[in-house]
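Sanity check record (used in CI):
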Amino acid sequence: MQTNIFFTADHHFGHANIIKFSERPFESMEEMNEELIKRWNEKIAKDDMVYHLGDVSLGKPDFTKEILERLNGKIHLIKGNHEYSALRVPERFEWIKDYHELYIEDEEATAGKRKIILFHYAMRTWNASHHGVWQLYGHSHGTLSDDENALSIDVGVDCHNFYPISYEEVKEIMKKKKWTQPFAPRN
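Expected output for Metallophosphoesterase family protein:
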């Protein structure tokens, strides 16, 4: 069975006010929590890799543990600014980091590996951005306009119909960008 790779952020499980703040289409926190779990598990299988770019839950640690136990996948956590409870359930994560440089085998990428910078916050520039390295982020809940000239995107649930986004989906979005290498050799 193939292991798939997914990215997501900003679930804010247990946070009733996020419905209003981010204009989420849910009638209650309970409805939001259940729908986010359902959509996560529709896409992600037990052995899939998930990179969650922060703000998992604002609920209490026991509540957060119960939610995390219901989610499929091997979850890697990039810390957001709302991780009090998630950090109290470290055993549910493969690892927990502030920042990560991920390498994915991809025959379409330079030297067969795609490098992706994972961070909770959007950056205007990042390690090797001038060489075409991607940056994935959350935090902004879709409020930052996408820069078609930058190889970065918001992978938060508010931007993707409340679903995690697969590596293949990210790749398709990046192919539509108008990025050009700033220091390309001249002919």
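The first strand starts at residue 5 and ends at 8. If this sentence no longer matches the regenerated tokens, the check is flagged for review.
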